[in-house]
Amino acid sequence: MKNRNLEAQFTLFPIETEFEVPPDDAASDGVALVSFRELVPEINDTGYLTHAIYAYPAKFIPQIVRYAINTYTKEGDWIVDPFAGSGTVGVEAYLCKRNAVLLDLNLLLNHIMPLKVYRGKEILSEANLYKLLTDLQENNKQFTPTWSNVTYWYAPEILEVLSQYWGFINNTDDGIYAAIIKSALLKVSKRFSYTEDRTPKLARSKRKLNAIEELLKENWKEQLDEMVQSLSLKTLRDLNDFVVYTQQYHAEDLGRVEFHGGVDSSDVAVPRACDALITSPPYLQAQEYIRSTKMDLFWLGHTEAEIRELSRLEIPYRKADRVIQTETLDKVRETLTREDLRKRLDSYF
Predict the structure, then answer these.
(1) Which of 20, 121, 278, 299 has its CA 20 to 30 A from that of 325?
(2) What share of the chain is helix, strand, coil (3-state, %, to 5)?
(3) Are 297 and 112 in contact (CB under 8 A)?
(4) For 136, what's the count of Cα atoms within 13 Å in the CB-facing half-sphere?
(5) How many helices and strands (H and E) does the chain possess?
(6) Can you tell me the distance from the alpha carbon of 164 to that of 137, in angstroms, rounded to the nearest whole number?
(7) Whole-angstrom Cα distance, residue 53 to residue 229?
């Protein structure tokens, strides 16, 4: 299995940029067509700094968020994102000296944000990370997710090793270094499973079954250990870049990022007054966020009961408890001849 996790090169940049929509970029109906990558040229990599630490389906790209923040808010403002997902709004708000309140149904948000908006001021030690990785490989603790189907997704020998590694990392108090290794183990646990890692949804494929079968004939554990180490080291270096950047550009005026995963944003009260709402709403049925991340949630210690409840509340599978009526929604509703589509529309809004 070839290791594709090449170290990325990130450019650190100032955030003061004037935004101007090119006047000649217009569609035939008069609507201006814009490229946020062109409007925000200082971000030349959607995964810069800590944005790529966690895999997440249909990520909100930082260029869009940066444009909205700089266009509609000022330093010190509070921004709310009720569909926070992988936390892009939180990271960009922090880098732009704004504050943010992040809400999401997915509990993964609570695990993502302490790494993506790392508050440490000291450069992290690679030697400390390597020591913990050595302890990880030599430990005898075990952790198996409380997931009735876990053996369906793993070859027995791979599951045994992953259970050993998670047993150690879920029982260590080594702070940020343990969190770094956890983020790597999540990616490794998916890559070495039977699920098709080329798509976000949890689903076995014939291709992946064959790939794992062939992998088991090779030095698979060495490859697994190498991947854990390389991903952990990359994340540590990303965090060190983040520390350098925030200390250089923020100094004493760091913002605040509050995050609340596992909450239903349709009825939760935003805990403070906010100046702007910036979000990327769920893509109706194009993405099933809980299904896509439930393997991660199980390894992080969440239960089937928790995940089942979250899935029940996910748009568009939840039942609408009220029908929102506006001029636009009523017009759209009138065009739908299928009752199931009307129900999905109502569940969405």
Answers:
(1) 278
(2) 45, 5, 50
(3) no
(4) 29
(5) 13, 4
(6) 8
(7) 14
Q: Both tokens of residue 247?
A: 């200390």
DSSP symbol at 277: E
Per-residue pLDDT reduced to its tens digit, 21-52: 455 555 556 678 888 989 999 999 999 999 99
d(CA 72, CA 54): 28
Instruction: With residue 259 as reference, give the H or E element that holds it.
Output: strand 257-261
Q: Do 323 and 346 form a contact (C-beta atoms < 8 A)?
A: yes
Distance CA 35, CA 22 (A): 9
Q: How far apart are CA 109 and CA 263, in angstroms?
A: 10
Contact criterion met (CB below 8 Å) for 218 and 78: no
Instruction: Return the sign of the alpha-carbon dihedral for residues 235, 240, 246, 248.
Output: negative
Instruction: Note the pTM of the prediction, 2 decimals.
Output: 0.84
Give the C-alpha separation, 307 to 303, whole Å.
6
Q: Which of 100, 140, 122, 155 is nearest to 274 (CA)?
A: 100
Q: Is a pLDDT exceeding 80 seen at residue 125? A: yes
Q: What is the DSSP string of 153-176?
A: SS-HHHHHHHHHHHHHHTT---HH
CA-closest candidate to residue 103, choices 307, 345, 277, 292:
277
What would the pLDDT profile of 203-222 be if each residue is shown by its tens digit? 999 999 999 999 999 999 99
Amino acid, res. 142: Q
